[in-house]
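User: My advisor asked me to double-check a structure prediction for Monofunctional biosynthetic peptidoglycan transglycosylase before group meeting. I don't want to rely on an old file, so could you generate it fresh from this sequence?
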Amino acid sequence: MDLDRLRPYLKIRYLLPGSLLVLFLLFLLWLLMIYISLPDVSALVKKNPKTTALIQQRIQEAKQQGKKLRINQRWVRFKRIPKLLRQAVRVSEDASFYLHEGVDYTELKESFKKNWEKGEITRGGSTITQQLAKNLYLSTERSYLRKIKEYFIAKRLEATLSKYRIFHLYLNIIELGPGVFGVQAASRYYFGKNVEDLTLGEMVRIAAVIPKPLKVRANGNSRWLRWKARWILHKLLKYGYINQEQYDETIDEFE
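Assistant: Sure, here is a fresh prediction for Monofunctional biosynthetic peptidoglycan transglycosylase from the sequence you gave:
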């Protein structure tokens, strides 16, 4: 056997473990730098944010198109938001919200698998807490860096705020239409009434808009909206949040 020919490969074999260690340490240092740069969320315990990163992003996008975006956002107390609307949002966006600590690892695993198979980020797998983190501090950019930041901010939000407060903030800043943020603003914009006066069908419509706020109107009749509304109603019935009579009275609206 020619040892001279094998010597370069042997050298690589012995250097590889050390190189991997260095790469791993650099990766940890990179994560630490990201974590240190993240925002302090402690002010949110008692104060409502005056604006969000997403609101500012939408304003800039409109400006680039030569337009001026009118922001419609109204804060409303948690108790004024109907329980059924809260339940509709949870079954639609994050059914295990009160069980996890900011991240649903089962959903995250499935999302990573789907994205890996397609070679791009097409599925977010975000919890309500992660969506709040994105809306408050990040952007709608689809990248792994943003997902990493979203993960860390979500964990920080969960460590600092109560579930009650996280959900309250989310329901008041979530994007629900062009320039429309929060369930109270959406109630006034789409149905001309306060959030506490919504019918079951109207609540389901607002919850259905969340994944596609700029493409689907809550007071519209698109195929996607009707499908999503039926899906939410089925989940509300399945979990016992509404009874059969409520389901039967509302489902025809979306057939």
